[in-house]
Amino acid sequence: MSAQRQGWAERLQIAGRVGLTVGLALVAVLLINWLAARPDLRVRMDWTATGQNTVGEASASVLERLPGTVTLDVFFRPEEPPLTQVAYIAQERTRRLLRTLRDASFDRVDLRENDIRDVEAIERRLSELHLRGFENCVVVSFGDQREVVSLNGALAVFDPGAPPPASRPARIVEFAAERALISAMLKVTRGAAREVYFIVGHGEREVDDTTSSGLSELDRQLAQDGLGVSRWNPLTDGPIPADCACLALIGATDALSDELLGSIEAWVRAGGRLVLVPHPEDAVLATSRVGELSARFGIEIQEGIVCQPVVDPQTGRLSVGDPKVSSFAVSPNNMAGHPLMLPIKRAERSFVVSGTHPMRRTAQPAGGVTSPLFFSSAESWVDGFQPGRTGPTLDFRPDPALEATGRRFELALASAFPPADAAPQPAMEEKPQARVVVFGSSMAFTNGAFRYNQDLLRNVFNWVLDREYRLSISARNPDVRLIPVDKREAALPLLSRLAWGYLPGLCLLLGILVASLRARAGATG
Amino acid sequence: MRGTFIIFRRELAGLFAAPLAWILLFVSLLLNGYLFSLVLSQTMGDVTASLEFVFGGNFFFWALMLVLSPLLAMRLLTEEAANGTLEYLRTAPVSDAAVVTGKFLAGTAFMATLWSSLLIYAGALSLWGVAPDWGQVITIYMGAVLSSALFVAIGLVACSITDIPLLAAFLAFMSCLLWVMMPALGGMLLVQMRVLFADLFGSFEVAEAWIGGALERMDVRRHFGNSYFQGVLDSAEVIFFLTWISLFLFLTTRSLESRRWRG
Lengths: 525, 263
Prior knowledge:
The complex is a heterodimer. Chain A is α/β, with parallel strands linked by helices. Chain A has helices spanning 2-36, 57-65, 84-104, 119-128, 177-189, 216-224, 258-269, 282-288, 290-295, 342-346, 447-464, 485-524, and strands at residues 44-46, 70-75, 109-113, 137-142, 145-150, 156-159, 171-175, 194-199, 227-232, 244-250, 273-277, 299-301, 305-307, 327-330, 351-354, 359-361, 369-375, 381-383, 410-417, 434-439. In chain A, strand 2, helix 3 (84-104) and strand 3 (109-113) form a beta-alpha-beta unit. By secondary structure, chain B is mostly helical. In chain B, 84% of the residues lie in helices and 1% in strands. The longest helix of chain B is centred in the last third of the chain and has 37 residues, at 165-201. Chains A and B meet through helix 1, strand 1, helix 3 and helix 12 of A and helix 2, helix 7, helix 8, helix 9 and strand 1 of B.
């Protein structure tokens, strides 16, 4: 009896020791996993060819500067036909992007993927976020600030297709989730809105003008980018508003007063920010005195229109003699290495300028630097600039005897310099620095050119406002790899035969061979 | 180490000498091949979508893993125990840990062979001039092998408990299934508990968030989907698989050792 009891005791002791060891091993596993998941110890390597799981430089910079933890609530549900399939694809791509953003944020992004099947939890969360109803969206929140980013319209743009007889399937027109989410994060984490004041009262282009020559698209984009947009009429509104972070004078046609020129110059020299863009016509440039204002910052806006040879896409011929030559695309080769241009240059994008004056730096600001942003091509010429000649001069043909030809002309310049004195300071964000951007033509800012130039314009205002980290983020496209149409007919049957014919067949044959060899070995053994 | 290698070689040769392995391979390759060619033709030759669907993006991928790993574990451990050869093996001059590790590596190598169809499809596509994203292909393959290895390890623990092959396979399958279903089951349980705890204590939110987070961290499909499947090699995900595999191998070794004192 006692031996049996002793045996049991020994077994119990061994079981206890084993249990303890197992428990300790389990704790060790949990601890190691917890440690491995710490952001500062974790290493993620994106092995995809196009870096699909790596956020862009601009996004990474924004994530790095987040002042605290931003919560992203995902509320996705199936869309009604015909968008069901494309919405699902967009949702999956957004989810993937959200995880990438979370992983790149070092715990600054808290991702909550709400399960639509758990109605009670969904309702509770919506109530916490003070939201009514449930739409397909991602809610970005930081403290009391929140921004709803809709699936259809913000994260992605869908084309619902067309029913028969046209029978065009629904498709994703644009997937801009990264841009939309980063913008929303910026919006909820910034403090009070920073105001950009557009000067009016001198025939300038208007922010509420929705025609092709208006600036309504620019207005919409600036608002989307978290900036306040207001109009300032110096004649009726008094001095430059105290909350003004940036002044924009775009396409003035009437003369600016001495007082206005003086007040703008003084404000900029005190650390203000200015975007200055003349009207394309030479006569207006002179009468509006925009060139005079620009010259006060060491930037000369010259007369004439920069043209460059443009090939007519219809005929394949050079469009010399046609106004088309004054409207051309600026390729990455003609962009300078300025921080404002780098994101566009790296993304190998181009933009369009029309009717632009050539420009020149006449003096470097004290303690600062003025540098070009982009140029025309080496074959360009300045049309209509014929000193001493009057009357109509634009013929859109190079005339080496009368016009400057065959070189690259500077088409926009940016200047940054320290303020002359500490006070009064405009409503700035970070560095006490004055910044001026001068473009050669206001046509680049208009609704007509907006779809070509939106990244450029966003960058202009973000750089001027000292928000380099908000520079444009290109849309993230999937790495689609398709078998070419011409090879498809031959490739698909062969691949099918290989996948579920040859491979399993080979396996079966090997299996039979092994079985027969074993049977033979058994029979002889 | 040498003992582990000897056991590994013996087990792998034994696996491929048995008809069961070839039948499993045949069925898996047939299923994967059918799905691959189906999706490839339906997506008009979309290489990435086809490979992603077959290797991680569909139910059968996980079903194959859940069915094959326990069967392999059963074949590696329980059948041998039932035949009585395991006892001979354990009297050989190799440790229990070496036996378990060798068997585990053989099972994993078999699963790696099974998933190598991914590399074959990708290679065939490359020959047609449409190279898939090889970085992603390699990480998916690594993820599939590591996930299979985890299930083989879970299966070995379950199979080390009993000498009855059918019961072992069933236990192994249920353990693997439970591991996969744990986050979903836990979530459902939490919903029920929420009602109960709300009545008793008024709020359950903190505990719910904590338990929900813990369950999420155990989700093998999430670990696979968030990194390997997307073409990312993440140190935390690698460590997740390696540590849990190590724990289960440790448990298997302890379970085999316990046969001595269990009597």
